[in-house]
Amino acid sequence: MESSNKRMLTPSDYETHADDYMDPAALAYIAGGAGKEKTLRDNTKAFETISLMPRAFADFSQASTQTTLLGKPMRHPTMLAPVAAQSLVNPMGEIATAQAANAFETGMIVSTLCSKPFADVAQATDQTKWFQLYFQQTRALTKVPLDKAIAAGFEAIVVTLDTPIQRPSKRAQLNNFALPEHAAPANLAPEPSAPAIEISKDESVIFQGLMTSAPTLDDIAWLKNYTDLPIIIKGVLAPDEIDQLLTLGIAGLIVSNHGGRALDGTPATLHMLPNIRKQVGEQFPLLFDSGIRSGEDVFKALALGADAVCIGRLQLYALAANGAHGVAHLLKLLRDELELCMALTGCPTIADINASRVIDKDTLS
Amino acid sequence: MESSNKRMLTPSDYETHADDYMDPAALAYIAGGAGKEKTLRDNTKAFETISLMPRAFADFSQASTQTTLLGKPMRHPTMLAPVAAQSLVNPMGEIATAQAANAFETGMIVSTLCSKPFADVAQATDQTKWFQLYFQQTRALTKVPLDKAIAAGFEAIVVTLDTPIQRPSKRAQLNNFALPEHAAPANLAPEPSAPAIEISKDESVIFQGLMTSAPTLDDIAWLKNYTDLPIIIKGVLAPDEIDQLLTLGIAGLIVSNHGGRALDGTPATLHMLPNIRKQVGEQFPLLFDSGIRSGEDVFKALALGADAVCIGRLQLYALAANGAHGVAHLLKLLRDELELCMALTGCPTIADINASRVIDKDTLS
Amino acid sequence: MESSNKRMLTPSDYETHADDYMDPAALAYIAGGAGKEKTLRDNTKAFETISLMPRAFADFSQASTQTTLLGKPMRHPTMLAPVAAQSLVNPMGEIATAQAANAFETGMIVSTLCSKPFADVAQATDQTKWFQLYFQQTRALTKVPLDKAIAAGFEAIVVTLDTPIQRPSKRAQLNNFALPEHAAPANLAPEPSAPAIEISKDESVIFQGLMTSAPTLDDIAWLKNYTDLPIIIKGVLAPDEIDQLLTLGIAGLIVSNHGGRALDGTPATLHMLPNIRKQVGEQFPLLFDSGIRSGEDVFKALALGADAVCIGRLQLYALAANGAHGVAHLLKLLRDELELCMALTGCPTIADINASRVIDKDTLS
Amino acid sequence: MESSNKRMLTPSDYETHADDYMDPAALAYIAGGAGKEKTLRDNTKAFETISLMPRAFADFSQASTQTTLLGKPMRHPTMLAPVAAQSLVNPMGEIATAQAANAFETGMIVSTLCSKPFADVAQATDQTKWFQLYFQQTRALTKVPLDKAIAAGFEAIVVTLDTPIQRPSKRAQLNNFALPEHAAPANLAPEPSAPAIEISKDESVIFQGLMTSAPTLDDIAWLKNYTDLPIIIKGVLAPDEIDQLLTLGIAGLIVSNHGGRALDGTPATLHMLPNIRKQVGEQFPLLFDSGIRSGEDVFKALALGADAVCIGRLQLYALAANGAHGVAHLLKLLRDELELCMALTGCPTIADINASRVIDKDTLS
Fold first, then answer.
1. Quick count: other Cβ atoms within 10 Å of Cβ B28?
2. Share of chain C above pLDDT 70, in %
3. What DSSP assignment string belongs to D197-262?
4. Helices in C196-290 by DSSP H: which ranges?
5. Phi/psi of residue C74, each to 5°?
6. Gyration radius from chain D CA atoms
7. What are the DSSP calls for D257-322, one per residue?
8. In chain B, what residues touch C365 (CB-CB under 8 Å)?
């Protein structure tokens, strides 16, 4: 499989060639998006609206991609996004991913729906590692993965709020995707012990059923009391709701629409990023997710306000292609492309990457 | 045929797969639009210009899609649009549609060109039922279906004004479509008893012929005197003509371009909706027609000013696919999608769906 | 061939099916445009940017398409554009076209490069007939066709000014198009008697060669003295040059880019029409050419300022398809579509077709 | 091969048909662009946003394409861009190109990576000839080609600054392109005598490796002292960096993004041209590069502010097709098209080609 790297000249090659080495149903599950996949498409197309301004004379003798997040240095401004059930594509699952993160000095966010014990995953990397929390039906059930994650030494809690309901994509349904046993969550309560919800004829399965488990602002407040770990919110985009979260004292935000897997019709996150940066202020930790397919994309997200970016689907394609080596190679391709962009736009440091380095056609003539 | 539901994961699947189970000529007749079908295409494309703003923290414990139209409660803000000659695609025709409307608690508008006796259709549903009137060549001829509809217990009269002339679409002509005997209007005068119009050499078949039967404002006034039922106008878009109708005391408006079957080149109705809502005021009953293909589309039309929407072509595809079960399933898919949109945009009630929940790219950065 | 009319449901069907009955080289010659054919494409695409506003309540009892041009009544606001060498596609050539014009009460503009004697063409129609003049290398050579045209009874002179140089289109070249003997100009001087122009090494064949025959403002002034017939200019678009022509006392303008056959890159004429109407004033005779493919297009050109439109390529496709019957059928299709547009937009007369009947998306919300 | 000219009706035909006569790997190397080739595509698409305004009455008796650059007359405002390794496509390489330049009275810029001795190339043409300089790893290494170029009689130095790092395009990599021995640089130091750079684990091959050879403003100042030849900068687009260069006393600028081969995501150069012309003032020598595929494109670049344009890829396709004859024929096609544009837009001289001759749709109505 090592030889497949030859065709992997850019990060998106892992996506382009995924159907060569992945099970069609697993690929449909990973690649698919909500509804008509308009948000999925818009997330990547948004990057085409931004141009880069070349520069010639910056001094690169001290240049580096190093940056700092939550007070901790990072070798480069890229993290592995929380993706569920990674054993689906590789028997080592999240452990292989963590090995790649460790080898390429990259932060990693581990999903609630991780298919390997948190402790084993955490042990595989000395780099930044955060835990992504999906609130469960009851607080007792929520504490099961949460306590394990805290015990495993994760350094922050990322709470995902954009998918109180997540339907399988149409692609996944048409491919009859079902999660295999070996990729099932390894860190949740042993069996579905929450009481079934009863829905009357005049009620809705969605409203009076599924949405009763949706996390509330109170849940975030509870979590903040429950642990001293910094809390980062992923997937809240409405300005007033962001304000509520800031008031509550969260430590960071991840601008995300769940890679187009949640509400189809949501705008591309790249278009929402500048206003959110404006709202939270220059110093607040802000990550970007949904749509990154190249180092050039990383550069553009940083230029428009992100401190770092998260890599979702590409991570899984690379894991499927070549395990830990695939993921490490993907991360290397991303950093090489980012460095090339920095070199040709005159940005020796991550701090140099700002709005003045990108350009909008409307301002040209 | 029940098994075909498996492929029907979204409402538009009934359209996508229609050629698997429909006679090509009947499909051409139903699917086709006027002229080059630009309006037909624009009607659906217009929805892609509107984005949805996700929200996380609304309380859905009391949520529902219930709403009120002309003072009567509706389980959800969707109605079956008046579509002619439904026996074309199912032997039970409009009776099957009415059964579905009844089963899924949905309002129905029955066409003047209904292929089943009005009384039989009306009897099949306890839900909201309105009668759609095409004015005939003379008032005497118009009274024939009108009196039958009033006797059958329809609760409102919807007058369609956008098609004084309606040519068969090019698709229908190329497929040699002709309405079969069993789908002919069942409620009109027994034979065409109106006198033939004579056209001189210097006159036009269109102007001095067909247009002499076009309904006028006087006809609406006459109708208002003739019946106490509320009168709803479908297909008038010009602001000054809407004003004339409001002055006359109509009870509601349906913003429609006849699904792109009347004047090709008419703008997408979704683009015209906000200004018409502005013109008629917040409380005036306003329905939307032409272009709805998903629950997300329903949400967007409500957000831009509609109180409810009408479903036209999809209704016929579902009726063709699986009779009353098909239509009921279609309505369920539409409501599920609408509920999902409401859940993920933080709208527990129909009243919460307003312009603040949709977003225009231009406002983003 | 009569039966082919069955497939000709809209005017543009004559274009769509042209390759079924036309010689490929002749079709390439007629269909092709200058350069990369961007102007050719833009001419038709421009019509898609204009929408129509439907209306319901106008009175059509006295409606008609009748209008007046240069003081003479016309049955409908459409003229046959001057197209060269019509014997290329039909042995009767321009005589057949004139018969169609006569039968369908349509004005006709006959080209300098007409393949039949002017007298024969003029004799075939009692309708409005104008003569299109290409200035020749010398005034003596120019007088040859001009005198014949005046003698034949043409009622106005249309001077084309946009093609001092006209290269065969790339399509025509790739198809090795050469004008056959029987389609050669029938009304020019018997042999090329003008002296050959000598070009030095430092001069240009285009500048010091071909452009020396380009007509000047002086030539127009000379023509105005030479004949009392009204002079109409075709193909001048620059505002200051239009002003010069107005000062000279021309009788009308045809807004045209030669159907995209002259300078590729010229804007679509439809986009230039409103400003030119503004410049020449409401009463000045203004025709529109380049891009008309339907009665809806005729309506839009009138709404944006034209008094009448010219039909170029479609005329030749219809002539090729079915001779005089084809052209008459084409004209009928165009008028039917125009009447339908008028009926559904509430315009009982040509004078009612103005800018208020078309609509721009930007004004909608 | 002479007969292939028959298919070459426009300059871009040499590009369209290149795969008929070129080695796939060589073609991939020449045709490819950086990254996803967005800039490559945008460079040519930008020309489609500009329209031409036709004019009828200009006097062309004295018309010509003659112009002046750096005080020296040019027969037409087109130069052959510096392209490396031309022996790749023709055994005579840059000598054949120079012969074409001489025959068609065209300026030529010879690349540092020229595959033939500078003296031999310079000897082949009496027309304007400039030398394009890539700074080498050390000044000593830079002097090797520089001294040879000065000795060969080149009249100006063009310093390229947009590609301190240039990766082979993805196309070139996928085609396993490698520069053959016979196309290697013929004028550089005999062997890579610069010391290898050592990179530590925490450093970057790009930043601490490749970028250490990137030319700085000091290098330009050094060059200015080293030679009296005028210095022209190619590929600097940032306004403040242009200001620095103007202060340094450069003699001209070439607006270029290296034909989309350097930083993908850079805006089309045509969109940047007007502002740069505004910045440097009306008299400063300004050339345009990247995207020219026709004489119409030449016209548009001149209208938006360029004094002359450079032809890159087309030059190589024509050289591959037919050696010196191919390049001369290409130049003739370009000038013919430019002359035709000038004739039909009323521009008898290059000085007449200005912003008033092009038109933007937004200004039309």
1. 21
2. 96
3. PP--TTS-IIIIIGGGGS--HHHHHHHHHH--S-EEEES---HHHHHHHHHHT-SEEEE--GGGTS
4. 217-226, 239-248, 269-280
5. -130, 140
6. 20
7. -GGGTS-TTPPPHHHHHHHHHHHH-TTS-EEE-S---SHHHHHHHHHTT-SEEEE-HHHHHHHHHH
8. 271, 273-275, 304
Question: What count of Cα atoms within 13 Å lies in the side-chain half-sphere of residue D54?
Answer: 29
**Three-class SS of residue C242?**
helix
Dist CA C69 CA C178 (whole Å)? 37
Q: How far is CA D316 from CA C325, D88, D261, D264, D312, in A?
A: 54, 9, 15, 22, 7
CB A154 within 8 A of CB A112: no
Question: pLDDT tens digit string along A41-51?
Answer: 999 999 999 99
3-state secondary structure chain A: CHHHHHHCCCCCHHHHCHHHHCCHHHHHHHHCCCCCCHHHHHHHHHHHHCEECCCCCCCCCCCCCCEEECCEEECCCEEECCCCCHHHCCCCHHHHHHHHHHHCCCEEEECCCCCCCHHHHHHCCCCCEEEEECCCCCHHHHHHHHHHHHHHCCCCEEEECCCCCCCCCHHHHHCCCCCCHHHCCCCCCCCCCCCCCCCCCCCCHHHHHHHHHCCCHHHHHHHHHHCCCCEEEECCCCHHHHHHHHHHCCCEEEECCHHHCCCCCCCCHHHHHHHHHHHHCCCCCEEECCCCCCHHHHHHHHHCCCCEEEECHHHHHHHHHHHHHHHHHHHHHHHHHHHHHHHHHCCCCHHHCCHHHEECHHHCC
C-beta separation of A289 from A280 below 8 A = no
Contact: A53, D238; criterion CB under 8 Å: yes
Query: What is the reported pLDDT for D1?
Result: 43
Q: For A1-50, how does the pLDDT look when each residue is reduced to its tens digit (9 = 90+)?
A: 444 567 899 999 999 999 999 999 999 999 999 999 999 999 999 999 99
Helix, coil or strand: residue B116: coil
Torsion angle defined by CA atoms of residues B173, B174, B176 and B177, in that order, rounded to the nearest 10 degrees: -60
As for the ipTM of the complex, it is 0.95
Q: What is the DSSP letter of D76?
A: S
Closest CA to A232 of A219, A243, A245, A216: A245
Q: Which residues of A touch D243 (CB under 8 A)?
A: none
User: Testing the interface with D: which of C176, C263, C361, C363 to mutate, by most D Cβ within 10 A?
Assistant: C263
Element (H, E) at C313: helix C313-345
**CB D256, CB D159: distance < 8 Å:** no
Quickly tell me which residue has 């008929």 as its tokens.
D20
With beta carbons less than 8 A apart as the criterion, state whether C112 and C185 touch.
yes
Are the C-beta atoms of C25 and C176 separated by less than 8 Å?
Answer: yes
Which residues from A are below 8 Å from D when comparing CB atoms? 9-10, 48, 50-57, 59-61, 63-65, 294, 296, 300, 336-337, 339-346, 348, 359, 361, 364-365
Instruction: Please tell me the pTM assigned to this model.
Output: 0.96
Q: From residue A6, how far is each of A3, A10, A13, A89, A321 by CA, in Å?
A: 6, 10, 10, 21, 12
Q: CA C4 to CA C17: how far, in whole Å?
A: 10
A181 token code pair: 């046993």
Average pLDDT over chain C reads: 95
The alpha carbons of chain B give a radius of gyration, in whole angstroms, of 20
Q: Which residues of chain C have pLDDT under 70?
A: 1-5, 191-196, 361-365
Q: CA B321 → CA A40, A75, B83, B171, D128, distances in Å?
A: 30, 58, 16, 21, 75
* CA distance readout (Å), B209 to B137, B173, B191, B200: 11, 22, 19, 10
- Active site residues per annotation of B: 258
Number of A/D CB contacts below 8 angstroms equals: 104
CB contact under 8 A, B10 and A170: yes
